[in-house]
Amino acid sequence: MARAEPATTLTARREGPVLRLAGILDRAAATTAWPSLQRLLDGARVLDLGGVQRLDSAGLALLAEVVARGAAAGLAPRIDGAPAGLAELRAAYRLDEALAFADPAP
User: What is the pTM of this model?
Assistant: First the structure.
């Protein structure tokens, strides 16, 4: 019988202007975490991903939405940390380091 990998819960906490995320940021975590994250976003200047072990495309979409909401409020948070998979997903979806759409290819 195959052993199931233990689930790692995504945690989010606010420390002054820093919103810290830790754990695995996948589809299940993004869906579960979004309601609580919305309450933590206001005024966040830094999105610390140092504790995120890995993410998938749903996790990237959540991060891009967090940044877009900050930008709409006049303060897009700076991204700190690069979990496994982030660079590859950013490239696949043509997002820049700030998780905004990069210029289209010529």
Answer: 0.85
